[in-house]
Amino acid sequence: ASPSLGLGMSKEIFESMTRFGVTRGADDESMKRAMVAVSQMAGKGKVGAEELRQQLGDAQGFGEMQSIFAEAYQYSLGKDENTAAKGQKALEELYDAMQKGNVYSSKILPFVKDIANRKADIGIEEARYSAGAERARFQNRMSEGWKEFTANGGSDGLALFWRMAQLAADW
Known about the structure:
Elements: H1 6-23, H2 28-44, H3 49-56, H4 65-76, H5 87-99, H6 105-128, H7 131-151, H8 154-169
Helix pairs in contact: 1-2, 1-6, 2-3, 4-5, 4-6
């Protein structure tokens, strides 16, 4: 990402986006779109509406990002939880600042990272036991079982069984 963010911070931002996406059900394509959007923001040095609304906001699992960026923008201005604008007002302030070119990725992305991590922490346990995670574990076990089965000659025996069945049934 951006040299002004530094390698360490860039890595932390991408890790937080990944964690956030995982807890929100993002697929591989959406993860890639989100990372490209954040890379472009960091590379340009500014957050643009196209990256935030279209690339990131439309990516499956990243629909909350506009509100996260709005909250992060408030913090990047030096506001705290008590003085920061919230909801629609925060979004309007973010969009206005983006239009004027005043949303700098080096200032906002570290706050985005923190907020995304906080929100990911809430969903990580749920994601760990979600249907998708259980399916992935099942597929991994099946794959490992098949490797073990074939390594010990099982596939040869199965092939022989089907050849004999076909002969018996006269297929």
